[in-house]
Amino acid sequence: QVPLVESGGGSVQPGGSLRLSCAASGYTSSSDSMAWFRQAPGKSREGVAAIDHDGSLHYARSVKGRFVISKDDATNTLHLQMNNLKPEDTGRYYCAADSLIRFGYYVDNGKQPDYNSLHGWGQGTLVTVSS
Q: Where is 109: in which H helix or E strand?
């Protein structure tokens, strides 16, 4: 796997905002599908948002209307703008990239890919939403 580097996590109060970034400098293909996953303490990992090869955007129902995923193709950097954060958004957020997988399928259907087979994967950045 090519290591991806997430940043931007932190602690915020409910209603606050954070912007996560994922640097994929060692990942040469800017047209691949990319996504954000998260894992809350004691819970399974889940897909949050994805940009597929065709540019389509996908969001988990729990974040739709609050989170915005975007990608800067010039720098191959993935972003996740998170607004109106809630305590249930707390968790470690991971960035993923792959040339074959359509992450939108997993985000839309609440399924999980084989994380070990993904071309790019990060160590995650921690987000804590608490008053």
A: helix 103-109
Q: DSSP for 72-106?
A: ETTTTEEEEEE-S--GGG-EEEEEEEESS--HHHH
Q: H-helix or E-strand containing 107?
A: helix 103-109
Quick one: pLDDT at residue 24? 78
63: which 2 tokens? 């974040």
Tell me the pLDDT tens digit for each residue of 25-41.
Answer: 766 566 789 999 999 99
**Rounded to whole angstroms, how far apart are CA atoms 117 and 129?**
31
- Evaluate if residue 22 carries a pLDDT over 90: yes
